[in-house]
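Repro:
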Amino acid sequence: MAPPGAALAAGLLFFPGLFLLAKAALRRRCPEPHAATLAARLVSSVQAVMASTAGYIISSSCHRDVVNDQHWLAGAYPQFAVPYFIYDIYAMFLCHWHRGRVKGHEVAPPPSLRAAASAYLRKDLLMVLHHAAMVLVCFPVAALWRQGKGDFFLGCLLMAELSTPFVCLGKVLILYQRQHTALHKLNGVALLVTFLLCRILLFPYLYWAYGRHRGLPLLGVPAALPPAYNAAAAALLAPQLYWFALICRGAWRLFRAPPRQPP
């Protein structure tokens, strides 16, 4: 077994290191703003694939007793992943910093660091708060408070990351002005389906799984849980519903808009 903190140290090296290596490689083929954006999307997609894979392994190994079954990845992967959320706050800011240049405004003077940070927080405040909550709340709960219980539920929550690669691909296609292609539409459908299944319907499924374990009907599960559990589930679900509404609105506009006529 790896020594305590080894997974955390590995994450501290892996995610920023992968970003720097990817950006250095991409700078040979595209400008700095594009390279930084593409590298950030790559790292997010890699983390999502790793989290989803770890989540599937954990949940499929712990489905017989969803409360007491254990898997070593349930303790190791949260430690490995927590540096990603810290790094990604910086990576999102860097993408925001470069966004003006990416859109073809290279001649405009760059904003001050304070102005850029203020604009970044106004635009992505919910995502920043989400990342901060993952580090300050979800990681201590996953690593300490659970005391080895509920690995199955942690695995299912990790699989919520399955929709992230489609988010990243959609942003890359928009970056290269490919939002009216068939690939972008197919990616939008995949994003809509995976987000619905893995981030919205996930919560009723978790309640159902716990109810099956306790011999309770689905509607009777909330009353059988401590209020703090229901409040935590609601706090996790609320931003997912907001983002899902934005995805649905974007999909409606994408499939409703007539195709562009070439100039």
